[in-house]
Structures are given as structure tokens and as C-alpha cells.
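Retry 2 of 3 after timeout on previous attempt. Resubmitting C-alpha cells to design endpoint.
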């Protein structure tokens, strides 16, 4: 049975029939990500719609975000998606909500960058990269993934500091080249940033969430990422 707190959120983009027919996995994932969704919608005032795919397509990741007509589209693709199980395969059942929450925070970071008009932009003083267009595009994507990973870790340090090491270790495992389960190793190779955040102490809790991540992100850029 779907939790009452999820219903208003799903009504924003899903039909009542679909909301009533959520699978147990979809309910678990949405419940785990609810605090992030509430933060995005109510604290950040981000325009977020939630869509639940009736069937995952080949290569769909479990949760992703896009930007269309000025709104972020948070898409869950869990049905028939082996990645939904595989990505959490090494995580004890009791701790899986923490990893799912981090994934939602990662996607909301993308939404924030879109809404800020900063997508694929770097701070002043950092080159976008040169050479052939495909190589430049990979670098831009990797930088966005690095920023979003750091936001997910800053969120974890802020909300669940006692579990930071577990989430950080899991993210490094997911991002390790041998375990890459999303898109391409090159475009999602964020280890240079994850290595900067092995402990939650690197985040300045006196700063807003995205500034905490941005400080470390710029350090990675300065290191040549």
C-alpha cells in the first residue's frame, strides 16, 4: 500500500491509477527519496515532476532527471530493470534506503544545475576542454556527475553523518571502472572527486549544501578534471 505522504507528490505527474498501482519496489524507492524531493520542492522551490515508467527500456538507469519546458523530470525506471537490483546488490537491506536517498540527492543536484542555467558550465577560470566534440562532451558530463556525487555526499553528511563512510564507500564502488553499470566509464568517472571526500569532515557545514559541494568540485577542476 502506498504511503499517504507520497500521494500528493505523485499526483503532480502521474495519473491516480498509476499512483495506486505502484510496485513495492517503487514505493520503497520513493519513500527513501522523499526527504530529498521535499527539500527540492519546498526549500529550493525547484520545479520537479515525478514520472514512474511502466517499463524500463534497455540501458535505463533506475532514477534519472531531465529538463524540459523549464521543469525537472525525475524519472523512475524500476520495472524490469536489473540495474535496480544490481546497484544495491552489495548493500545490506537495512542500509539500502541510505544509498537510494543519495541517488535522489545526486539527481536533484542535476536539477539544480539545470534550473540555475549552469548545465555544462564551469566556474570562471576553468577551461571547458578542447579537442574533438565527443571528448569535450564526455568531459562536461563527467564534471556534472562529479558535482552531483559531491552533493549526494554533502547531503549524507548533513542528514546521516553516522552513515557517511558507508555511503561514500558504496559510491566509490559504483564508480570504480570495473563496476561501472551506467552509461560509460569515461562520462561517469568521478573517482577524482570522490577521493577528495573520503570523510564527511571535508564539507563545511556552515555553507549551504550546494556551496559545500561546489568548493570540493572546484578543487577537482583545479586538479585537471
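Retry 2 succeeded. Sequence:
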Amino acid at each position: 500500500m502506498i504511503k499517504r505522504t507520497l500521494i500528493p507528490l505523485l499526483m503532480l505527474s502521474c495519473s491516480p491509477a498509476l499512483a495506486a498501482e505502484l510496485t513495492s519496489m517503487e514505493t520503497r524507492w520513493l519513500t527513501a527519496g522523499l526527504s530529498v524531493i521535499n527539500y527540492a520542492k519546498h526549500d529550493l522551490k525547484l520545479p520537479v515532476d515525478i514520472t514512474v515508467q511502466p517499463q524500463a527500456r534497455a540501458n535505463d538507469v533506475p532514477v534519472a532527471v531531465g529538463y524540459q519546458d523549464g521543469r525537472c523530470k525525475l524519472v523512475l525506471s524500476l520495472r524490469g530493470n536489473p540495474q535496480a537490483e544490481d546497484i544495491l546488490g552489495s548493500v545490506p537491506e537495512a542500509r539500502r534506503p541510505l544509498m537510494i536517498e543519495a541517488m535522489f540527492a545526486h539527481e536533484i543536484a542535476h536539477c539544480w544545475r539545470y534550473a540555475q542555467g549552469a548545465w555544462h558550465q564551469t566556474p570562471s577560470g576553468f577551461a571547458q576542454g578542447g579537442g574533438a566534440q565527443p571528448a569535450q562532451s564526455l568531459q562536461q558530463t563527467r564534471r556534472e556527475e562529479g558535482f552531483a556525487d559531491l552533493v549526494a555526499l554533502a547531503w549524507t553528511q548533513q542528514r546521516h553523518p553516522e552513515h557517511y563512510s558507508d555511503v561514500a564507500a558504496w559510491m566509490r564502488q559504483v564508480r570504480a571502472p570495473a563496476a561501472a553499470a551506467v552509461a560509460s566509464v569515461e562520462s561517469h568517472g568521478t573517482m577524482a572527486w570522490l577521493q577528495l571526500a573520503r570523510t564527511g569532515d571535508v564539507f563545511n557545514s556552515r555553507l549551504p549544501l550546494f556551496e559545500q559541494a561546489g568548493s570540493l568540485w572546484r578543487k577537482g577542476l583545479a586538479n585537471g578534471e
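Attempt log closed. Residues 1-91 form one domain.
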